[in-house]
Write a structure and sequence with these properties.
The protein has 455 residues and is mainly α. The chain is 72% helix and 1% strand.
Length: 455
């Protein structure tokens, strides 16, 4: 596909010796924190939906399917919106779209209606998509190219701060305590959803939109081309972008699949061993689930720590080398967890978050390397690939359901199974990490490296 008349989602910064862009980075970092917080709450909504709507694993994973499908549909249109109205106005539009989505959680929770939940999540993800398409390349080009991965890791670390804090808050507010989890009524569940999404997030996002609308952000130029301008290049001539898009697909899919499965996985009696003193299996499962959901924060906390450390490490280590090391360790940890049990399996699966940390920033910056004025178009392609978060978690859920029906048919409560299917289904993310290893070693090579080596 030759791209002749689209522009970048960011308006590249004019180089100015000695100039600091700390203020602009601080503003953009706030966006990373907010969309990280809302994205991570999906992991808490999954056990909530299983309880309220009596859903099986795969059906509850539709929460992630609905959310991440928006990236596939709206990433490239988001780049067009940014072409049309500009970078800052597009961010405000994205934030206001998220406000509307948070308000839509009110009827979804009060009815209650699972289709309404899915609709609200699609609208929410649409707003986040606009922010992602703009913010990621903006951070990547806001400074020296050599430290792009480091900067993006730093801002992603604050994204991970949101993903570490809000699953813990959501588990307490939405799922309740261990003593009240089973008795909690649908109306109580609905009130918790309204408090979190409508009263807190809708207001916070609205104030942030007003603040950014009144702020000044630096202009960017070197990665920009105007509407209608011809560019003598094509995205398809950059293999690092194509391989990078697949890398983003499998990375997001693996990360989200693990995060979405943690509550059900750790609630298994042979993994977390929570509420083991409760005799009734149904009561034990719900109490164990409410405890296990709090561990989601530890998974995302590892990603936050890894990104702060990775930001420093990437000042001295090439992104490809660090990505190769981290993907190898992540694949090994998941494999060990699947093949073991007890708290050893618990801590190995939670540790994967630490090694997920630098993957998105490294894949993204290596994917858009040497794209020049096609940088924004490449960003749209890479953000489209985030749809992996819609596909791979659902596949993990389907494999888990299949194994539960086949080997653990008696371990059910309503339509929700807590058999060992989810334990073994997590082997699928290992394949994702092995592809990322390939990208780090070979797929990420730019044209100058490929053709320079060939000559």
């Amino acid at each position: 596909m030759s791209v002749a008349n689209t522009k970048t989602s960011a308006e590249h910064v004019r180089s100015a010796p000695g100039k600091s862009y700390g203020g602009a980075l601080a503003i953009v970092t706030t966006l990373f924190f907010m969309w990280g917080s809302l994205t991570s709450l999906n992991d808490v909504l999954i056990p909530y939906a299983q309880h309220v709507f009596s859903l099986r694993l795969a059906a509850s994973m539709l929460i992630q399917t609905a959310f991440f499908s928006a990236y596939f549909v709206f990433s490239i249109p988001s780049a067009r919106i940014i072409d049309w109205i500009g970078y800052k106005k597009a961010i405000v539009v994205g934030l206001l779209t998220m406000v509307a989505a948070c308000l839509a959680f009110y009827p979804a929770a009060k009815i209650p209606s699972f289709p309404f939940f899915l609709f609200a999540l699609i609208v929410l993800a649409t707003g986040i998509t606009v922010l992602q398409v703009a913010a990621n390349p903006y951070v990547a080009v806001l400074g020296k190219p050599q430290t792009a991965s480091s900067r993006l890791n730093l801002t992603q670390a604050f994204n991970s701060l949101g993903t570490a804090v809000f699953p813990w808050i959501g588990a307490h507010v939405i799922l309740g305590t261990t003593t009240s989890a089973v008795a909690q009524s649908t109306s109580s569940n609905a009130d918790a959803i309204v408090k979190l999404y409508v009263y807190f997030f809708a207001l916070a996002l609205f104030l942030l939109a007003m603040g950014i609308g009144a702020s000044r952000l630096p202009k960017i130029e070197s990665a920009e081309h105007q509407l209608g301008e011809k560019v003598n290049d094509s995205l398809w001539k950059h293999p690092n972008l194509i391989f990078g898009a697949i890398g983003i697909f499998v990375y997001v899919g693996a990360e989200v699949a693990i995060g979405s499965s943690i509550a059900n996985y750790l609630a298994l009696p042979n993994i977390g061993g929570f509420a083991s003193d409760v005799a009734d299996p149904t009561t034990r499962y719900h109490q164990a689930l409410s405890i296990a959901a709090r561990y989601i924060s530890l998974y995302w906390l590892g990603a936050m720590i890894g990104r702060f450390l990775g930001s420093a490490a990437l000042q001295k280590i090439k992104p490809g080398l660090l990505l190769a090391i981290f993907s190898t360790v992540a694949a090994s940890l998941v494999t060990i967890s699947v093949l073991t049990a007890g708290h050893f399996a618990l801590w190995t699966i939670l540790s994967v978050g630490l090694f997920n940390s630098i993957m998105f920033p490294c894949i993204f910056t290596m994917g858009i390397a040497e794209l020049g004025p096609l940088t924004g178009d490449g960003s749209g392609i890479l953000n489209t690939a985030i749809v992996g978060g819609a596909v791979i978690p659902y596949l993990v859920g389907k494999v888990g359901d299949f194994m539960n029906r086949t080997y653990y048919p008696a371990m059910t409560q309503g339509e929700t199974s807590w058999g060992q299917g989810i334990h073994y289904a997590l082997i699928l993310p290992v394949l994702c990490y092995l592809y990322i290893l390939f990208f780090a070693v070979s797929g990420s090579k730019t044209n100058s490296e490929r053709y320079g080596a060939a000559s």
